[in-house]
From TrEMBL, chain A:
Protein name: Sugar ABC transporter permease
Transmembrane segment boundaries: 22-47, 82-103, 115-135, 163-188, 221-238, 269-289
Entry-linked Pfam families: BPD_transp_1
Occurrences of domain ABC transmembrane type-1 (ranges): 78-290
PANTHER family in alphabetical order: ABC TRANSPORTER PERMEASE PROTEIN (PTHR30193), INNER MEMBRANE ABC TRANSPORTER PERMEASE PROTEIN YCJO (PTHR30193:SF37)
CDD domains cross-referenced by the UniProt entry: TM_PBP2 (cd06261)
Gene3D superfamilies assigned to the protein according to its UniProt record, in alphabetical order: MetI-like
Family according to the record: Belongs to the binding-protein-dependent transport system permease family.
Length: 300, 271
């Protein structure tokens, strides 16, 4: 996904500027137009309208956006989303890198551990949250039982304003850690062996080898992982909806849950569409900033 | 060397911690509800039972949801493979007016999150009265640009002289695509297929919004619907049996194919 910019089409085949050639791309382009381009344009239009339960729409310009920025609950969902990204993305990136560095070996035990760390990734969010609610449940949950066994009072993590979001972050890390690990493993295998042999000849320490050879060689993947994870975690929804319903006291309500409830519980489609455009803009800006940083480093 | 052994020990410990929640849920699913109501710690002793699973099989809805998930996931996978292969071939190896601009537009589509389009999509399907149908669950997934991007990259990497030689022999573009090039892209098809299937099987947002009729729930949404009334459930053990039942097929498939799945995920991002 990070190679997007490097992929402007290759040199042309000679003498084949035939319109029939476009028939190969036509089926996809049709679906792309109907399912993505038109809904995107409609969504932008909707965000400037006010629609009611009966589906009548009225153009209101930027009123929805003005209202959003004065809406304390929306602003809190924005803050919550940022907090969640900060709780998960740095950890996912660094822990993913650490796991990859330790597990990048041929031995069988390393393969077994890799399998374990990636396994949770194939589960759906509903199964993951079902499992983790049973971990956090104070009365009979895994942590509760453990606390009691140790003679402590169980904590109701998901009902605690301060602890609910960290609990969702832990759940998310458990669910998502496999992807960064695998991406880093793939990158590590592409570092030329010769570099390590040269470092060994120079008697370079493990630390020097890591910081001078390994990390510079996988820099692109490092930024790729951050971009992918920021985009993914900005879209937090299922975990919050299924574990806390955004509570307690909106402490875990993310932007996407706000969009969902505004759109499909209150049927304020215009207002929900406006919130969706704000999220879209935030994701774009975050991706662009990261892309800028990563390409600047590349030049240096 | 000692430091490296410490790192390995820490990673092994983390792996055990990764497994504990799954083992806990599995153990709970084998306990009678009455026992769990009294004391969840009874997991460690006492009687185990398969009653929760029996109750699950008595509930026909789960099978309907699995069938729905299979139809949707297989349909989306087939659709994505066909559309993305055709488009990838077209963008990578053929020339036509506007090709480069169209390709850049498709790539820009990669940056659009589902939230930005989902409200309008929902309205479109409402106007067409198509909600609670398989096409409604499958079609939006076919528009994702990722497959086209992947296949274009892959087709581009195949040497050009193959098509030129075949063209001189009088083969049509479609014959070249179908007979010569498509067989060469099987690794990429497998990657894209695994990706699409996993994504479709685990998707939650769109099926939650589009399928409101219980019979059209996918497994993910079905499990969520019973999870909602966690407090007044038929019992923890039953819910846990459901978690095991919904999660186990993916885990088993993963254990069998993990080498390919991991390679696919790594390879797709590395391109």
């Amino acid at each position: 996904m990070a190679t997007i910019v490097a992929s402007v089409p290759a040199p042309k085949l000679r003498g084949s500027g035939d319109w029939r050639n476009a028939l190969f791309v036509a089926p996809y382009l049709f679906v792309f137009l109907v399912m993505l381009v038109i809904p995107l344009a409609m969504g932008m239009w909707l965000s400037t309208t006010k629609s009611d339960l009966f589906g009548t729409e009225r153009w209101v310009g930027l009123a929805n956006f003005v209202r959003l920025f004065g809406d304390a609950i929306f602003l809190q969902t924005v803050a919550n989303t940022f907090i969640f990204v900060l709780l998960t993305v740095p950890f996912l990136t660094l822990a993913g890198l650490g796991l990859a560095l330790v597990l990048n070996r041929q031995e069988r035990w390393a393969a077994v551990l890799r399998t374990i760390f990636f396994a949770s990734t194939v589960l759906s969010v509903t199964v993951v949250t079902l499992v983790w609610r049973l971990v956090f449940l104070p009365d009979g949950g895994l942590l509760g039982v453990t606390a009691e066994a140790l003679g402590k009072t169980p904590i109701a993590f998901l009902n605690d304003e301060k602890l609910a979001m960290p609990a969702i972050a832990v759940t998310t890390i458990w669910w998502c850690i496999g992807l960064p690990m695998v991406l880093f493993l793939a990158a590590l295998q592409q570092v030329p062996r010769g570099l390590y042999e040269a470092a060994a000849l120079d008697n370079a320490s493990r630390w020097t080898t890591l910081t001078r050879i390994t990390l510079p060689a996988i820099r692109r993947t490092f930024f790729l992982v951050i971009i992918i994870e920021v985009i993914l975690q900005f879209q937090l929804f299922g975990q919050a909806q299924l574990m806390t319903l955004g509570g307690p006291n909106n402490a875990t309500r993310p932007i996407v849950l706000f969009i969902y409830e505004t759109g499909w519980r209150q049927w304020e489609l215009g207002y929900a569409a406006a919130a969706a455009q704000v999220l879209f803009a935030m994701i774009l800006i975050a991706a662009m900033i990261q892309y800028r940083i990563s390409s600047r480093r590349e030049v240096a | 060397m000692r430091r490296s052994r410490l790192a390995v020990a820490l990673v092994a410990l983390a792996a055990v911690l990764m497994l504990v929640p799954l083992l806990w849920v599995f153990a709970l699913s084998l306990k009678a509800n009455s026992e769990l109501m009294a004391d969840t710690a009874s997991v460690f002793n006492g009687r185990y039972t398969l009653d929760n699973y029996r109750n699950l099989f008595g509930n026909g809805a789960v099978f309907r949801w699995i069938l729905n998930s299979l139809i949707v996931s297989l349909g989306m996978t087939a659709g994505v493979l066909v559309l993305a292969s055709l488009a990838g071939y077209g963008f990578a190896r053929l020339e036509f007016r506007g090709r480069d601009v169209l390709f850049v537009v498709v790539l820009l589509g990669l940056a659009v999150p589902e939230q930005a389009v989902i409200i309008a999509r929902h309205q479109m399907f409402s106007w067409l009265s198509m909600h609670n149908s398989y096409p409604a669950l499958i079609l939006p997934g076919l528009s994702a640009p990722f497959g086209v991007f992947l296949m274009t990259q892959y087709f581009r990497a195949i040497p050009k002289d193959i098509d030129e030689a075949a063209l001189l022999d009088g083969a049509s573009r479609f014959t070249i695509f179908w007979r010569l090039l498509l067989p060469l892209t099987i690794p990429a098809q497998a990657t894209l297929g695994i990706f699409t299937f996993l994504h479709a099987w685990n998707d939650y947002w769109w099926p939650l919004i589009s399928a409101t009729n219980k019979d059209m729930f996918t497994l993910t949404v079905g499990v969520a619907s019973t999870q909602m009334n966690f407090a007044q459930t038929e019992g923890l053990g039953f819910l846990m049996a459901q978690a095991v039942f919904a999660g186990a097929p993916m885990l088993i498939v993963y254990l069998f194919f993990q080498k390919y799945i991991v390679q696919a995920v790594a390879g797709a991002a590395g391109r």
